[in-house]
Amino acid sequence: MRNTPYFKWIKLVIASIIFILWVVWIENYWFLLGYPLLFDNYITKKIPWGFWKKRKDGKKPSPIVEWIDAIVFALVAVYIINIFLFQNYKIPTSSLEKSLLVGDHLFVSKASYGPRMPNTPIAFPLVQNTFSSTTHIKSYLDWPHWDYKRLAGITNVKNNDIVVFNFPAGDTVPFLSNNPDYYNQMLITGLQEAQKNNNLMPKQPFNSDWERNHYFMNIGRKFIHSHPERFGTVISRPVDKRDNYVKRCIALPGDVLEIRHNQVYINGEAVDNPEGLQHNYLIKTDGTALNDRFYERLEVAKIDRQGMGNSYYIPLTKDKAKLVEDMPFIESITIDEEIPNNTGFQVFPYSSDYNWSRDNFGPLAMPKKGETIDITIKNLPIYERIITAYEGNKLMVKDGQIYINDQPATKYTFEMDYYFMLGDNRHKSADSRSWGFVPEDHIVGKPILVWLSLDPDKSFPANIRWDRFFKIVHKN
Questions:
Q1: Considering the domain 279-335 in this protein, what is its CATH number?
Q2: H or E segment to which residue 246 belongs
Q3: Residues 429-444: tens digit of each pLDDT
Q4: CATH classification code of 86-174+243-257+345-472
Q5: Distance of alpha carbon 365 from alpha carbon 354, whole angstroms
Q6: Other Cβ atoms within 10 Å of 76 Cβ, number
Q7: pTM given for the model
Q8: For residues 161 and 475, is the Cβ–Cβ distance under 8 A?
Q9: Cα–Cα dist 266/422, whole Å
Q10: Across the strands, what pairs with 170?
Q11: Which pLDDT score is estimated for 281?
Q12: Once rounded to an integer, what is the mean pLDDT over residues 392-416?
């Protein structure tokens, strides 16, 4: 059948169906203009697609040419797969232990929540934003730039889903100092510089915490940009080229989140905690030193081990904490709880009008697409980045009046849905308590499988966690 004249038409029909379904899926019908190229490839063959491989003497292409051809094809295939189907992601920190471990390599499904069309379509595959951690040479071109568009997916983000997303505060990055994020660094640095130099302290009291924060952030911004030897070049990144984070989605658009004494409540009801949920515990011994065998028994990574004298500060699950409590050389074990201190500098939104801490947080309503809220100077610290950074509006405050796009504003309607993400290792996680909401256009995908796991605390081959190979990623 392969030698019959009808076979090429059969191949064309199959390819045409796939091509048309793909165009309908991405809802960009301009691609239909490329259909003649598909037709030529199977039927007319007028375009010499392999012209660059042909030799004048008619001989077979050299091995170098064949290798280049194979590499180009592989890169194109990987690029397409990476956009529409899945990508690899490596767990870099302990924020999700014990649900996901440092050194886990994940297959992240982009089809689960619907793949995004890239904001930066011309980019080197398999490289997130720069070619290495030591250089800020971009792996993508800033132009052309496409607006946010998400294709139809299999499902929606649900409560307790583990989600990979682009870091919302990663739009601006000091290349040599990216933790904490740029905005927190501006605030912290501005406060420190003002405390060192009384001339920088304000002469008049602030009218609001929003005004206070912007005052100190402006000082911090000038300091960071004037000290590249310490902070590095300050660079900006589009949404799809911001660093990837992985956390657990705790609250969906429209939910009301609250954390009371380390327990999460959604819409007033306590949620079921993940099996691997951890909090930091203060442990005091009778003088016995905690050794590697102790930590390995409790599965505490080296990065999470802290102690001095007979006092130790380590993350544990409830079951592991009970195990420690029953050990004969333990004098006391107490769960850590950060109490709000009225300063407004502990957690998002960094305002004394919201006297919250990482362990006592909210209530906070999740913004929902199409919802309209009252906007005030008091709640502006909560919604400022939504209005400006995420939804692209111009915001200004003058004489106590809020202006959006140069118009006086007392209300605001959200253009996107927003989510709240937490790490399961609650006291070892930089998450939404630090930088706020995750916009829908930052959602990358859903981890579905651990395909490789390497323990960073051990050397090869002992570092291979064989029991985690091809482990399905569950909610709990």
A1: 3.30.70.80
A2: strand 244-251
A3: 999 999 999 999 999 9
A4: 2.10.109.10
A5: 13
A6: 11
A7: 0.89
A8: yes
A9: 13
A10: none
A11: 96
A12: 96
Widest distance between CA atoms in the chain: 88
- Name the token pair of 380: 């502006």
Taking only the tens place, the pLDDT of each residue in 115-147 is 999 999 888 877 888 887 777 789 899 999 989
What are the domain boundaries of the chain?
7-82, 86-174+243-257+345-472, 279-335
336 within 8 A of 282, measured Cβ to Cβ? yes
Please name the residues in contact with 306: beta carbons below 8 A apart, sequence gap of 6 or more: 312, 313, 314
Structure token pair of residue 63: 């091995």
Residues 464-473 have pLDDT tens digits of: 999 999 999 9
CA dist., res. 398 & res. 338, Å (int): 36
- At 69, the amino acid letter reads D
Question: 159-191 b/e with 16+ CB inside 10 Å = b?
Answer: eebbbbbbbbbbbbbbbebbeebbbbbbbebbb
Q: 309: Cβ–Cβ under 8 A, 6 or more apart, which residues?
A: none
C-alpha pair distances (Å), 13 with each of 17, 27, 38, 47, 460: 6, 21, 10, 20, 51
Identify residue 444 by its one-letter amino acid code: V
Over residues 316-345, the pLDDT tens digits come to 999 999 999 999 999 999 999 999 999 999
For the segment 199-247, what is each residue's pLDDT rounded down to a tens digit? 898 888 899 999 999 999 999 999 999 999 999 999 999 999 999 999 9
DSSP state of 171: G
